[in-house]
Amino acid sequence: MDRVSTVAFSGDGQLLASASDDNTVRLWDPATGTLRSTLEGHMDRVNAVAFSGDGQLLASASDDNTVRLWDPATGTLRSTLEGHMDRVNAVAFSGDGQLLAS
């Protein structure tokens, strides 16, 4: 694993997501430190991660100019959001989880 650029806890504290220079997002059990899954799909380093308030989605922002939405329970890629003209450095859900800013 390369350098970790950021981490984020799920709202219930049951998962910890880490974004890394190796183009992956990793999901950890914070109580035990056990790696739960590795989310692969970005083509360049991952700069930011954020859980939705209900924990049903995990967003990741990358130097590949995309934001990806994941199901953190299964590790499944739900959607790839394209349209940025340059790297994406930040991502955040609104309090009600209806909006995503990047």
Topology, pairings included?
Layout (H helix, E strand, L loop, with lengths): L3 E6 L6 E5 L3 E6 L4 E7 L5 E6 L6 E5 L4 E5 L4 E6 L10 E2 L6 E2 L1
Antiparallel strand pairs: 1-2, 2-3, 3-4, 5-6, 6-7, 7-8, 9-10
Q: Tell me the helix content.
A: under 10%
Percent range for β-strand residues: over 45%
How are the strands ordered across the major sheet? 1-2-3-4
The quaternary structure here is: single chain
- What is the helix/strand order? EEEEEEEEEE
Overall mean pLDDT: 96
Tally of strands: 10
Shape: globular
CA-based gyration radius: 12 Å
- Alpha-carbon distance between the two ends: 25 Å
Main sheet properties? 4 strands, antiparallel
Low-confidence stretches: none
Number of helices: 0
Structural key phrases:
10 strands, four-stranded antiparallel β-sheet
Structure description:
This protein is mainly beta and 102 residues long. It is built from no helices and 10 strands. Strands 1-2-3-4 form a 4-stranded antiparallel sheet, with no helix packed on it. The protein has a 4-stranded antiparallel sheet with strand order 5-6-7-8, with no helix packed on it. The protein has a two-stranded antiparallel ribbon with strand order 9-10. A hairpin with a 4-residue loop joins strand 7 (67-71) and strand 8 (76-81). The radius of gyration is 12 Å and the shape is globular.
